[in-house]
Amino acid sequence: MSTATPLATVLIDGNNFYASCEALLDPAVLGRPLVVLSNNDGCIVSRSAEARALGIPMGAPFFQVRPQLERHGVIVRSSNYSLYGDMSQRLMATLESWVEELEVYSIDEAFGVLHRPRTSAGSGADLLAWGQALRQAVRQRLGLPVAVGIAPTKVLAKIANRLAKHSPSLPQPGVFDLGAVADPDPWLEAIAIEEVWGIGRRLSRWCRLRGIRDARQLRDMPSGELRLRCGVVGLRLQRELRGHPCLPLVSLPAAKKETCVSRSFSTPITTVAELREAIATYLSRAAEKLRRQRQCAGSLTVFVRSSPFSGRPFYSNAATITLPLASDDTAVLLAAALPLADRLFHPHHPLQKAGVLLQALQSANQLQHHLFSPLPAAQQARRESLLATIDALNARYGRGTIQWAACGLRSPWAMRRSRLSRSGTTRLEEVPVVWA
Ligand SMILES: [Mg+2]
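That is the input. Now the predicted structure with magnesium ion docked in place:
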């Protein structure tokens, strides 16, 4: 037996994250049912506990449940991604100091690794008190509720987190340590096969056909059968369920190979001028991302599509261009992208969505000064400082403070967000005021 202290994997996950962020800015909504809508105010993407209790379904189209929402006086908000993104960064910064290693998995979810303390008898102690202290710290510093799942592996930590959220009778509400229970079997049996992380819809159907209905049965089924059906991926999943870590933490984000900005339009686009403005807007956003990542794009793709529900023939198209020299300069990228927009536009197909994909990304530092560089070195340096200044101004005074004329001034096609809350944590003029 090894004498090293065993490692524990934890999954920390925000409860109703978007709805909780909304309540943070506006305490008047605390304790009241609230839902957050997806882009273009389309579907429900987050519900407060009170809205959930009313039986308002997740993912429901807004127009369908609107009468129900109005009847119950449910507060409706458009998604405010600058608020959620900012709160996410604060959450991750707090979590960083609570674990030995952190993997940010999604906007409101992170895996962490830490050593289990030892009991006097020499075995690994439970981490319930630690988990409870973490929840309190996050609640106190950020005002956000989180659930903490603790286990020997990532797949089990996901399960533990689910149990922490949905088991009402836990001694420490919101925290569950699957690595410290005497018998994990009844807990695993409470997790339906569809709820196991990494099990897709097809695999869960295959399992059901074989009588495998829950996580415990998946753990105990013959490995050979699983391997035949889904190879090493299935075996890894099963080993994780058995408590042997196979999925390492990914703490450093890999250098991105592509960057994409795309949006649905609030109203279909029917003129080439509007499409050019939309593409120019997305491209400026993508180029800004690129410069922040210190990367240049070697090629770019513009794509468009119509609505599959419009009753007209569906139209979807894309065009790619390779740049003679990789670039992060918005003007250079615009000159390449706008002719593609002209080519893809079709007068008989109102467009519902468009996007820009920057590809063949390479590090801006590695990029050698090209022999055929379009600009002399001094001019190139001036150009770079101009772009850096524009980015700094936009970061400081808000997106769109300075923009390319090609992006247009009024954008009737822009995302519908009619019920947007304030940017109370990222814009000075919208910071909440407290009278004391
Ligand atoms: Mg969550």
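The chain has three domains: 1-178, 182-253, 259-407.
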